[in-house]
Specification:
Helices cover about 15% and strands about 50% of the residues. It has about 230 residues and is α+β, with helices and mostly antiparallel strands. The protein has one domain. It is globular, with a radius of gyration of 25 Å.
Length: about 230
């Protein structure tokens, strides 16, 4: 009986030590229609053409364990990151227009926020290697009453108003000409948030030490309690 109680206590202590702070990887999806746009170099359509009236799908994937997060329970929740904030990237995304998808890693900036009546997401990359200057970004924001004020909450498909913007731009510094350039506004129609799979967290080194120490103590106790041969 003492053996069983000791093992149960050690196992419970190990499980408690292995617990880590909650985190979630979420994906927000926006849909709608492009307007006030122009595709100079054929990023999404023909070169020198308008993208107005075409449907768009914007996905933002954010990790609530990264960057800076400010939460006010019942009021708002925001997470941001990227080199503009001297923080790791938090929000990456893809923008699909006319069947063509452009990805952004969010290395320069990224933000996801939610309030009781407002939601917004953005992601952007920026680089300059001396030959090309690149600045890519897209964002969406809008009003949708009743939205959860927690970025880790699931949001079913819902209608949303508001607007967004996108820009895909690469400039050839030597030739002094735009190599890639498309921009436009986004009229939002729907919004939803889903959870992505998150691998179970690995225990911290200190946690491993506590767990191993606990098992060692359990082994010693078991040996002391073991019956001796007659």
């Amino acid at each position: 009986m003492k053996k069983a109680f000791l093992l149960a206590a050690v196992s419970a202590a190990a499980m408690t030590c292995a617990a880590t702070a909650s985190a979630a990887i979420m994906t927000a999806t926006w849909t709608g229609v492009v307007h006030s746009s122009f595709d100079y170099t054929g990023v999404f359509g023909g070169s020198g053409s308008s993208l107005d009236g075409m449907s768009f799908v914007a996905h933002y994937t954010y990790d609530t364990s990264l960057g800076y997060r400010a939460t006010s329970p019942g009021v708002s929740d925001v997470v941001l990151g990227g080199s503009a904030y001297l923080l790791p990237a938090v929000v990456s995304g893809t923008l699909t227009i006319n069947g063509v998808t452009h990805s952004i890693g969010g290395g320069a900036s990224g933000l996801a926020n939610t309030l009781a009546t407002f939601v917004g997401d953005e992601t952007g990359d920026q680089s300059n290697d001396g030959e090309f200057y690149t600045e890519n970004m897209f964002s969406n924001q809008g009003s949708t009453p009743g939205t959860p004020t927690n970025l880790e909450a699931i949001v079913p498909l819902t209608t949303v108003d508001g607007t967004g913007y996108f820009q895909i731009y690469t400039f050839d510094l030597a030739m002094n000409v735009s190599k890639v350039f498309a921009y436009g506004d986004l009229a939002n129609a729907t919004y939803q948030v889903q959870a992505d799979a998150l691998p179970p967290p690995a225990p911290e080194p200190a946690t491993w030490a506590l767990m191993l120490g606990g098992f060692a103590l359990a082994g010693v106790a078991l040996r002391r309690c073991a019956p001796t041969a007659a």
